[in-house]
Amino acid sequence: MTILQFALPNLKAQPVLVTPVNLTWQNMISALEESDQSFKWVEIVDDGHTLKLMRKLDASSPEPKEYLLKLTKSTHTLYLSGVAGGYMPIVYHVKKVQFEKRGHRIWMAVEYIDGGTNEAYLAITKKAT
């Protein structure tokens, strides 16, 4: 019996899990990149650990609202907060987050407490100056 013959039945028996971390990561990316009301990035602050964003909620709102996407180390939560107040937890169990401007895009990397990682180039544009 070869290793492949032994391993193949065991691999098929393993379920593919959609973990809460992966699900919240995908939901965050979708929410940031939503085409109807997409966010625009303004700048990276706090040595690459915070991303400043703007979003116009709808055509009737006079001014776009400012947001910060950042990590709260005490709760290991990546959250979106309004500059004027309020916040919404986005991704949990985060150890470290890093944002970098690469060309005209924002690259984002997250390291989780369990050692896992996710990274993405965000499909959002820079706020017009």
Any chance you could write out the topology, listing elements then pairs?
Blueprint (H helix, E strand, L loop, with lengths): L2 H11 L6 H14 L6 E6 L4 E6 L9 E8 L4 E6 L4 E6 L1 E9 L2 E8 L4 E6 L2 E2 L3
Parallel strand pairs: 1-9
Antiparallel strand pairs: 1-2, 2-3, 3-4, 4-5, 6-7, 7-8
Form type? globular
- Amount of helix: 10-25%
Order of helical and strand elements: HHEEEEEEEEE
Supply the number of helical segments. Answer: 2
The whole-angstrom Rg is 18 Å
Q: Structural class of the secondary structure composition?
A: alpha+beta
Q: Mean of residue pLDDT? A: 83
Distance between the termini: 66 Å
Instruction: Characterize the largest beta sheet: strand count, sense, and whether it forms a barrel.
Output: 6 strands, mixed
Strand order, main sheet: write it out: 5-4-3-2-1-9
* Uncertain stretches: 11-18
Total strand count, please? 9
Strand content: 35-45%
Task: Describe the structure in your own words.
- It is a single chain.
- By secondary structure, the chain is α+β, with helices and mostly antiparallel strands.
- It contains two helices and nine strands, in the order ααβββββββββ.
- The relative contact order is 0.17.
Keyword list:
three-stranded antiparallel sheet, single chain, 19% helix, 2 helices, alpha+beta
Give a brief rundown of this model:
With 129 residues, the chain is of the alpha+beta class. Helices cover 19% and strands 44% of the residues. The strands form two sheets. Strands 5-4-3-2-1-9 form a six-stranded mixed sheet, with helices on one face. A three-stranded antiparallel sheet has the order 6-7-8, covered by helices on one side.
